[in-house]
Every structure is written in C-alpha cells, then in structure tokens.
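Troubleshooting: if your tokenizer reports a length mismatch, compare against these two reference records.
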Amino acid sequence: MTLKELIPTEEEYNSLISSIGLLLEKARQKTFYQINQTLVQTYWEIGKRIVEYEQKGKEKAEYGSKLLDKISQDLKLRYGKGFSRSNTYLMRFFFTKYPKIQTASGKLSWSHYCELLNVSDDLSRSFYEKQCLNEKWSVRELSRQINSMLFERLALGKDKNKVLALSTKGQSVSSPKDMVKDPYVLEFLGISQEHELTEKEFEQKIIDNLQMFLLELGKGFTFVARQYRLTLNQQHFYVDLVFYHRILKCFVLIDLKIGKVDHNDIGQMNLYLNYFKKEEMGVGDGEPIGIILAAEKNNFFVEYALGGISNQLFVSKYKLYLPSKEELEKEIRKLI
C-alpha cells in the first residue's frame, strides 16, 4: 500500500464531519424531546395538585380566583419566571382537559398546549392537536391555523359523523375532495380589501409568501413552477401555479382570478387538465386536479358550468381576511 493510499481523501474527511454532525443533531433532538416531555408532565402534575387542593377546600376554579392568584404569586416569588397567573391557570386547565397524562402527546411542546388550551371548543381542540401531530406544525403555524378557523372551514358541508371523525382523527386526504378548501384564507398576504390587485401582483404575493401558502393548502403539496407554459398548435398558454401532491400522487394546477369566475375560466382549466393528462402524467401518477381560486363565485353558475366535465376541477373562493368566528361556529353548531 502506498503512502498516498494511507492518507484519507477529502471526500472521506467530509464524510467524517457529516457523520459527526448527524450524531450531534440526533442527540440534540433526543435531548429536546426528553426536556419537552418532562416539562409537559411536570406542568400536568402541578395542575393536578392545584385541582386536588381546590377540591379539598371546595374552591371554585375561576380564572380570577384568589387562591389561584396566591399560588401564582408565591410560586413566582420562590421559583421565578413561568408562573404568571395565566400560565398557572393553564397548568390547572391542562389537567382538567387531560385528566390522564397518557392522552397528551409528548411530541408537542408546552407552547403548543398553551395554544391548544386557548381553544374553548373540545371538538376543535382535538382536531388541532391531531392535525398538529400529523403535519408537524410549529407553534406559529398552529396559532395561524387556529386563528384562520381551519377546523370550522373544513367541517362546513360535512355531516355530523364526518365532523366528529375530523375532530378525533384530523384531516385525512384520500381523494381530491378531501384536499380542496372553500374558502381559502390568504390573510398572510397582507393585502387590504380596498387595494385593486392585478393577477400578476396576486401571483407574486403568493410566491413571496410561498411557505404560508403551502401551509394553507395543506399536507402533501410541493411547489413545481409558476407560469408553467403549455404549447398547443403553436399557441402558448400559462398555468399560474403548478404543485405536485405527494399523497394523491398527482399534479395540482391553480389558476388565480381576482374577480368572479366565468365559463371561459372553467373551459381554460379543463384544457390545461387534458393537456397534463396527455403530456405530463408519469407512470404511477393520478389524474391532475385543477383549482380555480377566485374572489367571487356563483354556486349555481359553477354547478352548471362544471356539468358534464369529467376532469377533477374545483372552483373555490379566497378571502384576504380571517373569517368571522361567530359565523363559522354558528354553521358548525347547525351540523352537530
């Protein structure tokens, strides 16, 4: 063996550094998970002891009770930060909502549970917890989905049994209908209702906020291209946004309309879908899905315009502001 063969190559050295880095990352993740799990269990135990003490003294559990104030003040005085009245109340509330610690997930942080405990409705909270685990939402993403009333929007149009299944299992995507929302909420674009937007500006805003747009679209979407060019009979057409859905294994085409959708828009999307079926589908791909995202739509018009179309084509509205919580909750109560 020559001296040159004994000296490690640069590639081998880089491989060593990468393998060490991987070990460190795994160790950090394991440590974070263990600390997080211990913190959640500890706060649950604190909540349990507060409730047991209250029950002995027949103390009512209002947020503003004098006992809760005193516990918070004394804990903060002895042990420092982390025992504000609101946080102490959440520890107590955490135990009342999860009387068995095994029903709380060790994969979610205390910050996640603080967001979840602010959801008063049990069905909604259960959904957000399951969906948070399914899609690995950060605390910020969880907060956004709660504020945008995701559960209520997905539940609209479903019967009671489907609403209950949604709350206990989270959203499962097994068909195009499961994937599509109506409406989509795009408040993160920061566009005022008064601003007269062009479709080009609208598209650019989405690209600038692509991570949040993917969050709103839901699990399984990967971005492919914007202004995807199709050429037919020497004529060029452009699809605003193209995605690929990893779960349904198909392309998803999105066309943006700043006004009301009309039959020409539906016909154009149908053309795009037929093109993708013939020219872009690969082995194992499902049929493409088309979504026309419009500011306004007339349900009767859309029903007639879509009649007879065999392609998977949907028309959804978008909103530039968060929906009314009272309005959505009223609709959900009607269902259940």
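Reference record two:
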Amino acid sequence: MEKFSTSFAGYKKEEVNKFVSDVIKQVESMINNMKAKDLEIEKLKSELEKTRNLEKSFNKAILVAEEAGESLRNSARNEAKSLIENARRNADRIVNNALLKAEETERNAEKLRRNIITFKRKLRDILESQMELVDDIDKLDIN
C-alpha cells in the first residue's frame, strides 16, 4: 500500500496524481492483458471448434470407409458365391455332357460289336458256301 506525505491542505497532490496515474497505467495494462487473453481464448476456442469439426469429418469419413469396405466385402462374397455357383453348374453340365458322350460311345461300340458278329457270321456262311462249292468240284466228273 502506498503512503502519501502530508502537507498543509492534506496529501501532496503530486504524489496522489502520480499514484493515480500509476494505478491507471496498471489497470490499463491489466485490461490490455485481459483483452489479449480474451482474443487468445477466442482464437483457441475457434481452433478447438475447427478441430472438433475436423474430428467429426474424420469420424464420418471413417464410417463411410467402413461401410464402403463392408459393402465391398459383401459384394465380393456375393460375386464369389455366384462364380462358384456358375462354376459348379458348368462343371455339372460338362460332366453330364461327358457322361452322355460316353454312353453314346458305349452304344456305338456295342452296335459295332454286333455288326462285327453279324459280318463274321455272314462271312462264315459265305465261306462255308464257297467251301461246299469247292468240295462239289471234286465230285464233278470232268470227262
């Protein structure tokens, strides 16, 4: 606390004025400091708000990316299932076609065996008939 000297009419006016001037300067300095602090607080609040908005944007982007990733995974699973199903159908068709061709080949082979047997029988009959003719030649009298 400041103590003032006294004079005939009270405190010395110069000391009081100087003190009041110093107090005013200190108060103005404190007000300026407070204004600067208020500006800094507002700036920090603004930056904090921007950071929070950015964080919200990142969170939304992460959610969108996760949803897109899940959608891609589901799409890939569905496509894989579809490809596998198509491959199975194609494999079944190929196997069925191969079985049909094998059956047809087996029928053709069986038909060929029967034709060979028939041909051999007819050939044998012809040969036997020709052998009988040859045997009959011996019985002919050629004089």
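Descriptive notes for reference record two:
- The chain has one domain: 12-139.
- The radius of gyration is 59 Å.
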